[in-house]
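Side project, low priority. Logging it here so it doesn't get lost.
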Amino acid sequence: MVGRYGEVVLMDWGIAKQLRGGTALPAPKSGVNPDLLDPRARLFTTRNDQCIGTPAYMSPEQALGKNDQIDERSDIYSATVLLHELLSLRHYLADYETFNGLLVAINTMPITYSRLLFMHHPAHPTPRAEVLHLIVRGLAKDPGQRFQSALEMIGELQRIIDGRCRVSCPATTAKRLLREVGRFVDRYPLGSPFLFYAALLWIVFSMCFTVYMLIR
């Protein structure tokens, strides 16, 4: 929830887990009986049994009921699921209608850049390439391959906002190259004509070479 001063307040502590220090928190009592809901609604309702959490937003270790292995990296996974859903207007497991099928998909369906590239609402634009790579990392099956903390994930988001995206694919390579060229022109405006003609010659050479390789 957003407060009157713009502050963000976390309201739902139903399945909060204390990781370090203090005594263990008592198990929460769920206010909703999942068995009384229709199958689709159950996937988006927090459960409190062997598999604790909201199925559609569980991490792989959470979906397997490995509650002793759940830490902040599991929260990173869940937050990334929500981030992708907000950007694409489509849940990444929207095609699964059953509880068991959803849990299996969480642990087996590969999350790749090429898969996420086409996973969005038809009336909504595709999220930016560098954001999709961030989502791929946040949804890694192995917790060790995800962001290890919220601060690390925030740092990567800030890099993207600042235009300092990592080179991970042709799209991010082109964006990074254009950014560096822009910085060069800003720093050395007198050298921009030489850079322009050099780039133009390189493009012409690349096109001629490609045509030559196709017709030989």
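Brief comment: The CA atoms of residues 210 and 216 lie 10 Å apart.
Revisit when time allows.
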